[in-house]
Write a structure and sequence with these properties.
alpha/beta, Isopropylmalate Dehydrogenase, 2 domains, 12 strands, disordered N terminus
Length: 366
């Protein structure tokens, strides 16, 4: 017997009877695609540094071809420092923990500032059931795509006279068309079957009417994708009763915030839902649904913040950077930990710390 065949036989005899299924290579990189990429990292406030550190640990363990440029900014700053904006413009990609937004007063949201400054016009949140995590509804796999730059978030407010405040909702055909096009492109490229436009055009006939008109025009260019419309209040009712009917949802700014958080709560909670904000040139990846737990300092003191949402968001980031194999490894490891159920933070019914979940993910990496 040839000497070189002996190790092969030993491997075959020692392996289990169940063959290991490996994904075939379908991504052919261009020369240079594998060079390490710089990524701007904003740890943020509250639990942000805790969960972004979890991502750093996993990226290092996987030897992912990225490196971080870290900036310490906080939600109570008056504006995003120019060096942070320049870093994101240079690197094209940012990973961000939650930034707390002060209630009232004269400090505007740094999250909104970043989206406007970089024209990150599409917010995407993927809300889906994770195997092993019990929820009221099964077969939930909803992608909420939200217009990110105008609407109620335009920030055009002023006091007319003492005690009377006017807030302007701005809807433009340009922004409505491009978010509709992005939603249909996403559905087409990801083999999704239906796009639902969420609106309140029965009351806001001009503003939401313009949004609907834009969605209808774009829909005619994608005959293979089913298109329908739903009023936002009925949408919320349908989400909590039959969420499996929805596939891709496209919404104006405010409705998208509400719908995405509702869908996230149905599918397992904000702690496990990935998301990101993307424009033509730049992208910021962060926890998909509301980061209301950013200010929960009890989680920070006990070090029990859930890192799953940001880990899955970082997998989205790796895929965006054209590192699909690393993204698959990370997603598979996180889903395995959730499925096995031994390591879960309090929001998922467990008692694990953030680091214990991270260690479990590290152990589950192929």
């Amino acid at each position: 017997m040839a000497r070189r065949s002996i190790p092969v036989l030993k491997q075959l005899l020692s392996s289990s009877s169940t063959p290991t299924l490996r994904r075939s290579v379908t991504y052919m990189p261009r020369p240079g695609d594998g060079s390490p990429r710089p990524v701007t990292l904003i740890p943020g406030d509250g639990i942000g540094p805790l969960v972004t550190n979890a991502v750093e640990q996993v990226m290092e363990a996987m030897h992912a071809p990225i490196y971080f440029e870290k900036y310490d900014i906080h939600g109570d700053m008056m504006k995003v420092p120019s060096e942070v904006i320049e870093s994101i413009k240079k690197n094209k990609v940012c990973l961000k923990g939650g930034l707390a937004t002060p209630m009232g007063g004269g400090v505007s949201s740094l999250n909104v500032q970043l989206r406007k400054e970089l024209d990150l016009y599409a917010s995407l949140v993927n809300c889906f059931n994770l195997q092993g995590l019990p929820t009221r509804h099964e077969n939930v796999d909803i992608v909420v795509i939200r217009e990110n730059t105008e609407g109620e978030y335009a920030g055009l407010e002023h006091e007319v006279v003492p005690g009377v405040v006017e807030s302007l909702k701005v809807i433009t055909k340009f922004c409505s068309e491009r978010i509709a096009k992005y939603a249909f492109e996403y559905a087409y490229l990801n083999n999704r079957k239906k796009v639902t436009a969420v609106h309140k055009a029965n009351i806001m006939k001009l503003a939401d009417g313009l949004f609907l008109e834009s969605c209808r025009e774009v829909a005619t260019k994608y005959p293979g994708i089913k298109y329908n419309e739903i009023i936002v209040d009925n949408c919320c009712m349908q989400l909590v009763s039959k969420p499996e009917q929805f596939d891709v949802m496209v919404t104006p700014n405010l409705y998208g915030n509400l719908v995405a958080n509702t869908a996230a709560g149905i599918a397992g909670g904000t702690g496990v839902m990935p998301g990101g904000n993307v424009g033509a040139d730049h992208a910021i990846f962060e926890q998909g649904a509301s980061a209301g737990n950013v200010g929960n300092y009890k989680l920070l003191e006990q070090k029990t913040a859930n890192p799953v949402a940001l880990l899955l968001s970082s997998a989205m980031m790796l895929r965006h950077l054209q590192f699909p194999s690393f993204a698959d490894r990370l997603e598979t490891a996180v889903k395995r930990v959730i499925s096995e159920g031994f390591y879960r933070t309090k929001d998922l019914g467990g008692t694990s710390t953030t680091q214990e979940v991270v260690d479990a993910v590290l152990g589950a990496l192929d």
